[in-house]
Amino acid sequence: MSLIGKEIEEFSAKAFHKGEFIDVTSEDLKGKWSVVCFYPADFSFVCPTELGDLQDQYETLQSLGVEVYSVSTDTHFTHKAWHDSSDVISKINYIMIGDPSHKISQSFDCLDEEAGLSNRGTFIIDPDGIVQTVEINADGIGRDASTLIDKVKAAQYVRKHPGEVCPAKWKEGEETLTPSLDLVGKI
């Protein structure tokens, strides 16, 4: 069952953010654009490369009005320990949510139940809490956070311009399409 076009389920969790433990709920993801990035585990191999890459894009995402949340089935305590011991993770400024109960990972349909770990899932969520994009990768395949920029821009454009759609490889400022009978078979 696809999560596209569906509202995120309610959740409440502990998180690590800028040296503090905070509470995060599903309501915090509403009212602005959000990127939620699930990953298998702290103190692992591909995960720090992805989270560091996401940090490299964080300022640009923030300039687009996007807040970033990373989520694993580790605790917020483990996130702090990883943050304190890793040069890559110590640079992270976005919120790191702990999901030891697996409820958030299950609600986003990206839990590997046998392993008890999250899959590599990336979700773009609009200000109404509606899922606009989903990407889930196998454990051994790392993601490229730079691709989120164009996806967010496209999602924001489509939201502001009902009836228009963004074609493949669309970049901000390029032409969009307005689906209509006269375009059928002409693209």
Automatic annotation (TrEMBL):
Subunit structure and binding partners: Homodimer; disulfide-linked, upon oxidation. 5 homodimers assemble to form a ring-like decamer.
Alphabetized UniProt keyword annotations: Antioxidant, Cytoplasm, Disulfide bond, Oxidoreductase, Peroxidase, Redox-active center
Pfam families: 1-cysPrx_C, AhpC-TSA
Subcellular location as annotated: Cytoplasm
Family from the record: Belongs to the peroxiredoxin family. AhpC/Prx1 subfamily.
Keyword Endoplasmic reticulum among record annotations: no
EC number: 1.11.1.26
Catalytic activity, as annotated: a hydroperoxide + NADH + H(+) = an alcohol + NAD(+) + H2O
Gene3D superfamilies referenced in this protein's UniProt entry, alphabetically: Glutaredoxin
Lineage of origin: Bacteria, Bacillati, Bacillota, Bacilli, Bacillales
The protein's name: Alkyl hydroperoxide reductase C
Superkingdom of this protein's organism: Bacteria
Function field: Thiol-specific peroxidase that catalyzes the reduction of hydrogen peroxide and organic hydroperoxides to water and alcohols, respectively. Plays a role in cell protection against oxidative stress by detoxifying peroxides.
Domain Thioredoxin: 2-157
Chief subcellular location: cytoplasm
